Sequence to fold (371 residues):
Amino acid sequence: MKILVLNSGSSSVKYRLFDDGTTVAKGLIERIGEGGGDAADHTEALQRVMETVDLDGLGAVGHRVVHGGSVFGSATVVDDDVVRAVDDLVPLAPLHNPAALSGIAVARKLLPDVPQVAVFDTAFHQTIPPEGVTYAIDAELASRWQIRRYGFHGTSHAYVARETAALLGRPVDDTKVITLHLGNGASACAVQGGRSVATSMGMSPQSGLVMGTRSGDIDPTVIFHLHKVAGLPLDEIESSLIRSAGLQGLTGDNDMRTTTARRDDGDPAATLAFDVYCRRIKEYVGSYLAILGGADAITFTAGVGENAPKVRAAALDGLAALGIQVDPVRNANGDRVISPDGAPVTVCVVPTDEEAEIARQVEEKLATSVS
Ligand code: ADP
Fold:
């Protein structure tokens, strides 16, 4: 089946065309709405895609949607009700869901006879039990304002966990994996039998691991302190924690390549940032080993996870007593399996492919909804 996967951002549209699982075209329309950009709006952006790629015989369009709230636990065929539900979730994802809605609206208009399927970043985590998603705050407030953990990067964690089981030669249903998605955004996930049982991002993609520009976990009192004691306006605090924190906040640069290079030169700020980043990963690995009651595998993925052997080694250093070891030669080579032969926990490096996972879920969804 021919499937067009669209990842619509506020100022860009990433697309990839699959034909029976194989990528036949891909591209990026950038700076939408900006003077000199590739397109004036999302309609023009999609028109550009339709002019560029051969959509003859297109079976479906798959849309990446960031926030599915508590409503969507799997890929969903888009109709007016679904659009309304995604729109209702805008307060939880004020930047991301409106962009996805623009992409969906335009694709429905320009390709009215093609089924549109929404695939949510949050859906994979809907299997986390209540005790893993409930914040211990005033229950009435939490319920009224939909405050709970949702988790993100779900398509990546789902894909990588399945690929890991395949790498181990085990059925997914009988595999426990800790997946570490370390990109600009970063999150950890405990996957038991192919289902998410814990993840580090929360109501928003702000909590958990240290990221390129986001703080990850902090004491919420930091915000009140910055407001009441330091006198910073709330907007400024929000922006600081999202855009000027993480590696950016600690080193002045959001890229792990810069951090590791400066650390190699003995830069103290970069050394501290690297250590904070890796220690946070280790804290989550330990936590998820406890949640899973041991793991068959730990898998690194995304920009940092796939390309930074020093991060992989440091994050899992000193865990031999838990059966976790990284072989230095395999790690430096970037092998798929970087633990020694016979180690109780297999440590893996698996390149993620969110678009391929979206296409797979679209195909699966349409196969089940037709039958
Ligand atoms: P996104 O989350 O935007 O999809 P990626 O998964 O591509 O991002 O990850 C991007 C990050 O990966 C970069 O910011 C950079 O820090 C990191 N990265 C890429 N290559 C390397 C490398 N060779 N060593 C360390 N970090 C790397």
In short: The two ends are 16 Å apart (CA to CA).
